[in-house]
Write a structure and sequence with these properties.
single chain, alpha/beta, TIM Barrel, eight-stranded parallel beta barrel, five-stranded antiparallel β-sheet, 10 helices, 14 strands, globular
Length: 351
């Protein structure tokens, strides 16, 4: 009888091993699998309330973004709809944002602060003209305060980008004037470019850190439509960003802003893609093979249309969880994302 069992056990083991190997060969390699844990930290869930989460809603993609906000509203402490812009005539005006009233209703139901965002539409020349025109600056400050009161927003998010270095002091003067007008009634947050080299730019991080309630450090686009293919924010790059930011801005004011999107490079061109669009690429191109780049901890895949090679780099919940966990070593407690709509919804489970 004992000899019989001794013969059966090796046979069972061989069958099990063969089954496991067969399953691994049948598992599709081109699909983004969600089988593995996406969290880099095993912190207990009761600590989740320690972290503040926010996201921007772009004025050009409001429908799916507002739906994403509605479905995941319990994840947010703040929401930033891009409802204002610095116009070409240097006036502060409304964008084409649709359904801001619905954003406010969702926010009110969830006790979420609505921080209206104002953009210069990435136009450095426009913001240069504005900052060097005192009448325009004074009128802009007054208009922002008026809009915040009339729309009953909880604060303003200044997202002026590509500011020339010669306007560094004028930008601080503008922020200081706005801070004085707002007083403590409304929140003031300022979005700044992430720096990996300690040098003067159009955004004085030390002075901005003194004036703003929150400084949103935009840690993304280190590879973009203006560069070759690569990680949008590698963890090696993130360390440089956090070293400089935490040395210049009080840690409790820093909100680390991370990307929910990716880029597709081909023929020396690139265009941005949201996560759901990248998933479609993977399903339509089973030859693609998603890998995590070991240096950047970003995801990467290659596919072909005809003979044209497409190189895609992107972030999802798994890669962002690793970067958020790394950022926590700097005692950061605020995280924000560009942008809502089409993102990997597992991101909101991280916190």
């Amino acid at each position: 009888m004992r000899m019989k069992y001794l013969l059966i056990f090796p046979l069972v083991a061989i069958i099990l091993i063969a089954s496991i190997r067969l399953q691994s060969t049948l598992k599709p390699k081109s699909v983004i699998t969600h089988d593995e844990p996406i969290f880099a930290s095993n912190a207990p869930t009761e600590q989740a309330a320690e972290y503040s989460v926010s996201a921007w809603i772009a004025d050009y993609d409001t429908v799916r973004a507002i739906e994403a906000f509605s479905e995941n509203s319990d994840s947010f402490e703040e929401i930033m709809p891009v409802v204002f812009k610095l116009d070409e005539d240097l006036s502060v005006d409304l964008t084409d944002f649709i359904n801001v009233d619905r954003v406010q209703r969702i926010a009110q139901e969830g006790d979420i602060k609505v921080i209206a965002s104002i953009s210069n539409e990435l136009d450095g020349v426009r913001v240069h003209r504005f900052l060097n025109n005192k009448e325009a600056v004074d009128a802009g400050v007054d208009k922002i305060v008026e809009y915040l009161e009339s729309f009953n927003f909880d604060g303003i998010d200044l997202d002026f980008e590509n500011i020339p270095v010669e306007d560094r002091e004028n930008y601080v003067i503008f922020i200081r004037s706005l801070r004085q007008k707002l007083g403590n009634k409304k929140k003031l947050s300022v979005a700044v470019h992430a720096q990996i080299v300690d040098q003067e730019t159009g955004q004085n991080l030390v002075e901005i850190g003194k004036l703003a309630d929150t400084v949103r450090v935009m840690a993304y686009d280190f590879h973009s439509t203006e560069t070759g293919a690569g990680s949008i924010i590698g963890i090696d790059t993130l360390q440089k960003v956090l070293d400089i930011s935490s040395a210049k801005i009080p840690t409790e004011k820093i909100a680390l802003c991370l990307p929910t999107y990716g880029y597709d490079w081909s023929n020396n061109n690139a265009y941005s893609m949201q996560y759901n669009e990248i998933e479609d690429v993977i399903l339509n191109h089973p030859e693609s093979n998603v890998k995590i780049d070991l240096r950047s901890h970003s995801k990467h895949l290659v596919y072909y249309i005809g003979k044209v090679k497409h190189d895609v780099w992107f972030e999802d919940a798994e890669t962002l969880a690793r970067k958020i966990d790394f950022a926590k070593k700097y005692d950061l407690r605020q995280f924000c994302f560009w942008r809502l709509g089409g993102e990997d919804t597992r991101i909101w489970e991280i916190f």
